[in-house]
Design a protein that fits this description.
Length: about 350
DNA sequence: ATGCATGAGCC
DNA sequence: GCTCATGCATA
């Protein structure tokens, strides 16, 4: 049910692997699957294994799982256990410690679009994402359009750096709760799971307060112009907020989202301070609605004279107690409408 | 919010 | 073939 990404193997934290428990693929696989929400498959999974191996794998799984739960440094497990893990004991995502380079985020952006369901937050977004207003392609410039190739290249570079620290196989973990500066001079910081968790929570609350959707955030990231950081999908923002990303991914994303949040709130403060500046351009116009009776009158007039003179319009406006411009525009729209109707009728 | 897919780098 | 970050599509 939730975060268990079938693909994301939840790798055990290196530190948890004691030498004698050689993390064989089979065993970790077993553990992983055991955590999958598809118990029905479990039986088959080991069908070919010999009893002993199976038992051993299960035993190991139990041990490791317990270890995870209680191990204060276990990053992945932490999120869920601390938050709202329902039934799973294992974590959805990975974990081995990699160097987290912010660039890890560089998105992939397929030529896709962002969640259509989510609306854009006009003002704020416009300021944070200047491009979006331009044909709604902001994101695209930076992300979508570039799509695979370019992006892929980018990602590669990033991942490259990440993996360079043979961290995958080695055992250095990111979260040095405090003193664990595992990385020799690494500098990367304090991947304190709790901090991440609370940040994610605060992030969501503040985002909502700003009236910005997850998709908006993802798209707006590109406007931060942080080197190596493009936009992200709604999915990713959602996963960040729900802590369903890998620890490393969370760590990498945090500073970026933090930057966005600050910028967004700064812009909002600005708007509060001097709203005038933001008015003209993006102020929503009010749409007049003409009541039925008036509309009927207008239609009657239109039937007689689709192109009334200025004087005639003024007279009609006065009679119906509408603004002259409203009446004028109504006639314009009516003529257009009629044209469209004619067109669709013939074609 | 999340199941499934893709693609890069690694082994 | 595997891990991982990320996205698309959809419930």
């Amino acid at each position: 049910m939730m975060s268990m990404n079938s693909k994301q193997p939840f790798s055990m934290h290196p530190i948890l692997h004691e030498p004698k428990y050689t993390p064989l693929h089979s065993s970790s696989e077993a553990i992983r699957r055991a955590c999958l929400p598809t118990p029905s498959l479990q039986g088959n999974i080991f069908a070919g294994f010999d009893e002993t191996l199976l038992q051993r794998a299960e035993a190991l799984a139990a041990v490791d799982i317990v270890a995870q739960k209680s191990h204060p440094f276990k990053p992945d497990a932490t999120y869920h256990t601390m938050t709202s893990m329902t039934s799973m004991t294992c974590t959805p995502t990975s974990s081995s410690a990699h160097l987290h380079h912010p660039s890890v985020l560089t998105s992939h952006h397929h030529p896709g679009h962002h969640q259509p369901a989510q609306g854009l937050e006009g003002d704020l977004l416009d300021h944070l994402t200047p491009g979006i207003s331009l044909g709604g392609m902001t994101g695209s410039d930076v992300c979508s359009t570039a799509s695979h190739t370019a992006h892929a290249a980018h990602m590669s570079a990033i991942n490259h750096m990440q993996h360079h620290h043979h961290s995958q196989s080695m055992n250095m973990h990111p979260h040095g709760l405090g003193s664990h500066a595992s990385l020799g001079g690494g500098g990367d910081a304090e991947p304190d799971p709790r901090e991440l968790e609370s940040f994610a929570e605060r992030f969501k609350q503040r985002r909502i307060k700003l009236g910005v959707t997850q998709a908006d955030v993802g798209a707006a990231l590109a406007n931060l112009k942080i080197p190596g950081v493009g936009c992200l999908s709604q999915s990713t923002i959602c996963r960040f907020e729900s802590l369903t990303l890998s620890h490393n991914n969370m760590v990498a994303l945090k500073p970026i989202l933090e930057a966005w949040l600050e910028e967004a709130e700064r812009v909002q403060r600005e708007k509060m301070a001097k709203p005038e500046i933001f008015n003209g351009a993006d102020k929503k116009r009010k749409r007049t609605s003409i009541a039925a009776p008036e509309k009927r009158s207008l239609e009657a007039y239109f039937a007689v004279q689709p192109r009334p003179s200025s004087e005639k319009i003024a007279a009609i406006a006065e009679k119906l107690d509408l603004k002259k411009n409203v009446v004028r525009v109504w006639f314009c729209n009516q003529r257009q409408k009629q044209k469209r109707m004619k067109f669709s009728a013939t074609h």
